[in-house]
């Protein structure tokens, strides 16, 4: 049996080699191969393959359908030249299309970058698919309250009893510490830093990058700590060779000396969790075991890594009543109805899906992601509609070209390819301009959105830009390609355009669609602005003006009372006091309040606000009954103040002087405060009580109006005297309040820009339709002018149809905008009423803008001489 040459090399030779050479070359190579095969098979195969490759050169390569290739290249060149000439000849249409498409694409790209950043939050974690957090629905009088807090011993119990769970860890996050940063010190160097307390398995659940570590476990004892590379550089000017070094940590809740056992890479910007230090959870567990080791209390977060293939729905069913079962075994049935049920949420979903109502997930940031994604699509459609309208509007100028091409045999498919090519080229140019616009606007866009987005040309970004460009180009060119390629050669050569009955309605419908979207955006802007104004001006039940706050921390060399007395004596300081929480949603809570007449099954969750003396007076919280706390009148630790909502919920009449039990201790009601907002306007004012605890960490200072600048300088000098080398971080109370509605303010700002862009691009589309109509009716206009029509009459004639289109858009958009804005306002417990003038003023605004747009073109047409209109006749 003769040896066979390498089949792949032989197939390659037969594929490329010319017919007049193939037989001779193949025979020679095969003969040589057979001779060499007897000496060495491997060498013969290599020699044959190398010889085939050497023949792969122009003299031996056959023609691959050259005529087809030449025709294709010629067609591309011809279409490109025609497109370029049309762009150059009709500069007005070219620039209108370029502005419309590039503006729409720029908006879409900006929104894409923002949405891409939002949806990728926490997705970088290695175990993302299996990483879950345990949440809890706690029964209250107003329905289930969803919280992150869980019993401190839940994690270790779950890992022992649930085989589906691979790792579990309790964690005390930075929010546990009232969002205060602690102070880390080494020698005379002090920094503020954000900390978490975690268990050893935390590092098996979260894939944080550990840069350096000791030989032992990461958290071998309760005084172990890991620090971020960023903090290590600040403390030691390096990240290497610091294992075993000691740092001092001071915080209101815990302090001490800790030894470094590891250095981790600081969480990236797309992590919703940010921290500088990781302490051992055992430290806090030992300090507060009574609370953390009881099934009746909640506090730490619980994170799980489930095993691959775990059925999450089945696991949810198993853990739902897990806490109740443990509590019942420990305590019995007393207060069992107040114990919450557990469920799992994927960790990376929490950022977007963070809002719950009645224990059911009901949105969150995902609402704005969807909203702006829809806006991006609509802005692209509006820009594409402009191209459609202007392309068909200018069709009369290309009738001869289309007619001649069809006469000499051009197929409809070839013409469609030509017009789609024009669309793709225009979209490609617009994309380049759009990328430039995005690069210029990105810093401002980041300032509005609070992001740190960069225009990095990664594979994902490039592919997304190309996909957006391709889809936009095909969509915007589809209608002109179908319409222009359908024209009959006889009609086009006679200068006539055949329109089907539905043709004008399609173009008019496209313009109506543009204005419907624009009008909805304008109404939305008005409503969002009015709601934000309402939030800013509504009486909160306290006075937040000229009140700043900072945290008492660091190496203070005086006692708390002396510190506060010295602060109060600073010129420009009207009053100073302390607060255990804040007035923007950070407060404690409990249901452990017992009063006379309380029903056995009655459950009310009370907010717990801890204040110092004089804070009620400084905030100007009104007392509707009784009095506030006073140093001169009795022991304030046995006294308590409720708000009106709490008194109403408890059903107490004449509450002053009555006694209640809080956590088993008797408290005398000395006052009832008028309801005030200690949360955002998304929530109704809840029942709360106020306790008096002097010398708390959060210091609030009321500054005399008109003396803010110099007083702040004095307070900073005072702070630095007691806290050397620590930066003076302060906030004004109204800034904290504004931060509650940062998302709404960003939506308001972005909506203004997008609404303006939508109406601008829509007007360009209207301009295109006016131009189209004017060209079609040019001879009619000339005849009317010959017969005596005035310019005003011509203007009325041309603008009438467009006015009706805008009125139709208004009629469609106003009910839709009412439904959209009403749904958005439902998120607020306190909101504006949708007044009629929001909608009427928006409709009038759009109508006036449309009249101006139409007027510019119709006046121009109305002034054309009849001779110019009729010269072809």
TrEMBL record:
This is ABC transporter permease. Residues 374-487, 754-866 form the ABC3 transporter permease C-terminal domain. InterPro entries: ABC3_permease_C (IPR003838), MacB_PCD (IPR025857), Macrolide_Exporter_MacB (IPR050250), Permease_put_prefix (IPR047699). Keywords: Cell membrane, Membrane, Transmembrane, Transmembrane helix. The chain crosses the membrane at residues 94-115, 371-393, 414-441, 461-484, 505-529, 753-774, 794-814, 834-854. It comes from Splendidivirga corallicola. It is found in: Cell membrane. Residues 95-321 form the MacB-like periplasmic core domain. It is a multi-pass membrane protein. Its main location: membrane. It comes from the Bacteria.
